[in-house]
Specification:
This protein is 2% helix and 46% strand. It is built from one helix and eight strands. The protein has one helix at residues 121-124, and strands at residues 2-7, 10-15, 19-23, 32-35, 38-43, 46-49, 57-78, 83-103. A four-stranded antiparallel β-sheet has the order 2-1-5-6, with no helix packed on it. The chain has a four-stranded antiparallel β-sheet with strand order 3-8-7-4, with no helix packed on it. Strand 7 (57-78) and strand 8 (83-103) form a beta hairpin.
Length: 160
């Protein structure tokens, strides 16, 4: 059985007892985590697809350790310009081990508040709001007149 689950904004295909490296999670090492956003499951050819997620299904995992990924070098260059930039990057990762793919614990619905007894309909009926006359907008200002460009005297021709 496998499932496609969304963890920290990324989708992973996971199976039981599989180790997965995901973006850093704010969970201590050794703690259990549950991912309830299961998008698809396959159990011996029986495929269930969610719209977008399957209700009542969750992936349970244990946080193994936190670590940094391999260094990725980002090199930028523009030829013949002398422009070169080199940047390094190491992703912060969390290693998790999938322990189980099973139905999630039922969430308890919040108890509904009882509706307060309604007062007489005449007391609660709202009067229509009095309409105010629309405020007049100030007239739009005319754009300033452009000044004509000053004419330059024509260049004198000299004969030699």
């Amino acid at each position: 059985m496998y499932a496609i689950v969304e963890i920290a904004g990324h989708q992973y295909k996971v199976e039981k007892d599989q180790q997965v490296f995901v973006n850093r999670l704010d969970v201590e090492e050794g703690k259990k985590v549950t991912f309830d956003r299961v998008l698809l499951t396959d159990k011996d050819g029986d495929v269930a697809v969610g719209a977008p997620a399957i209700d009542g299904l969750a992936v349970h995992a244990v946080v193994e350790r936190h670590l940094k990924g391999d260094k990725v070098l980002v090199f930028k260059k523009k030829r013949r310009k002398g422009y070169r930039k080199l940047n390094g990057f190491r992703a912060s990762l969390t290693e998790i081990k999938i322990t189980d793919i099973k139905k999630a614990a039922a969430k308890k619905a919040a108890p509904k508040k009882e509706a307060a007894p309604k007062a007489d309909a005449a007391d609660t009926a709202k009067k229509p709001a009095a309409k105010k006359p629309a405020a007049k907008k100030p007239a739009a200002k005319k754009p300033a007149a452009k000044k004509p460009a000053a004419k330059k005297p024509a260049a004198k021709k000299t004969e030699e």
